[in-house]
Amino acid sequence: MFEWSRRKVMTRIQVKRCGMERYAENVCPNIIKKIDIQRQRSRNCYPSWAGNDYIHAYFKKDMYLRVYENMIHPVPGMHEFEDSGKGEIAAPDVKLRRGRPKKKRRADGNDINPSKASRRGLTHTCKMCGTLGHNKRTCPKKSAPNPTGEAPNEARGLDQQRPITVNSTLEQVDHDMFFAMVSNFDTHTFQSPSGDKGYARI
Predict the structure, then answer these.
(1) Backbone phi, then psi, for 168, in 5-degree steps?
(2) How far apart are CA 70 and CA 112, in angstroms?
(3) Neighbours of 61 (CB within 10 A)
(4) Which of 53, 76, 99 is the last residue in one of the domains?
(5) How far is CA 47 from CA 31, 44, 97, 99, 182, in A?
(6) Radius of gyration of the chain (CA)
(7) What is the pLDDT of residues 190-200, one digit of tens each?
(8) What's the pLDDT tens digit per position in 125-166?
(9) How many domains is the chain built from?
(10) What domain range includes position 39?
(11) Domain boundary among 41, 76, 111
């Protein structure tokens, strides 16, 4: 890459210098074309005496030749390099990673996923306070104290999704307390008020 750039610049300098040396005018050809265009546009203008040359020195032949008067000296090729005797530089070792190598290339930051809709332009509504512009994770009322003493909406989310009746709750509590009380006792005989006998773990 460096060798190609060097040769291109050397050729350009030589071509530009030789072409301008054969040019007869004092002003560069591209500048003359622009002056002719402005001359055609200035037909309706009123001239006034300036007293100096209206063409800047940077647009003349002498300045152009000064730009390309230098040269890039030739550089010896690789076949003329001196041998250091230390051998060629080895390539770095390839470390094999665990797992199957990925075939999909790494996504760029400007890549667009065609199967995913953009969220740009959407308005976010908070599920906690119902205000636009933020969600419940960044809601300012989330950390504010509740004067009513009720739990916030996210703490009561399970109760709202799965309502529990009072009767079912009491039956579950009585059932658990009964088995917790009788689990550590032996079986004894009891007599009901009507005189019937039975066996139970009490």
Answers:
(1) -65, -35
(2) 49
(3) 16
(4) 76
(5) 20, 10, 79, 81, 119
(6) 46
(7) 455 555 555 44
(8) 888 888 888 888 888 887 766 656 555 554 444 444 455 444
(9) 2
(10) 2-76
(11) 76
